[in-house]
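Lecture 7 notes: from sequence to structure.
We start with the chain below.
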Amino acid sequence: MIPISEALEIIRRETFSLDAETIDLENSVGRVLAENIEADMDLPPFDRSQMDGFAVKTADTSKLPASLKIIGESVAGKGFDRKMKTGEAVRIMTGARLPDGADAVQKVELTKEKNGFVEILEAVKTAQNINRQASEITKGAQVFSQGEIINEQMIAALASFGYAKLKVFRQPKIAILSTGSEIVEIGEAPQKDQIRNSNSMMLKIFAKNAGAEAEILPQVHDDFETLKQKIAAAVGLDSGLKNSEIRNPKSKILIITGGVSVGDYDFTKPALRELGAEIFFEKVSLKPGKPTVFARLNDVLIFGLPGNPVSVAVTFFLFVRPAILQMQSAKNCKPKKGYAVCSDKIKGAKERDSFLPVSLSTNEKGSLMIESLRFSGSSNFIAFAHADALVFVPQGKNLAKNDVAEILFL
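Predicted structure tokens for the same chain:
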């Protein structure tokens, strides 16, 4: 049994990076940039008005009321191209280009317009109500950098600087294989001693959110030879299967759920060994998730995760997700860490570190609070459905009410 930190280091060491491809901007959310993004223009590209009003010379408003001749207007998309002189004003709209010669804008509410003149009712200061050219960013400046994960908030900036297409790292292909004779498909009615296959769909969504392309393979009952054949087919080896149902016979990652412990029907590790896989670790000092397996076979990384849904979720976030992101050369592969205050006591494990699902809330003082989910065990996916984070409880420790604890945001 190895510490979590050692397991993470082994995964980091063995995970390889994929090459890049070019995609359309509209398909880029969730992908990892393979290039630096630079501004191809100043932003704003010119001095522009922050509001509707009149462009003026500051000196013309030193004595009030100031009556100025209106010589034109500047609107978004069509600015005023003549140079303003003393005693003149230009009607201007929000976002429009500031005319040459003007150095401030007075909002329309503090003016009176009559017979081609505008009366300025309050003096202005230089640059008042103006966004200066390049005040947000200058041409050639770096906006985003290689390795950043593209999110929805970045799209407007990427579009503004002309990135209709983007260079991103390829998405790893992932195959998901659930094992167990008790498992039936989601659409089937479980019979006595059976349960539906909740793990595969959950893992597919998790993998997609991490930027991968995931395929759910036909599930395998507790049969050693069949499991061995399905693993071989998934990693691109000669499986002996005449009509393989695996569409991506050479995925970058294979996730196997169930069959990783030491019971009579836990065949995952024996099957991997017989196929010649290199097993890097098979037990981690973690609750839930102790029997997690990490191996490599035919250049495919293999994660053997426990069968219980919460164990699957926890081990995915701790181990599989970082590998998916590292394959895409993401800057930040680790789960986002934070700290919060315990609302109540949280019990840890004597011999293992614990990462337990919790919900989060804020109190009237603005403190981030950890709320227990009455977590009854690694099969309690109902409690996990309400989780916002995993709270870390060190080996042999318990957390008391009002303790500050480390959390990983889900």
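Points to note: The two ends are 25 Å apart (CA to CA). The chain has four domains: 4-17+170-327, 20-43+148-169, 48-131, 337-409.
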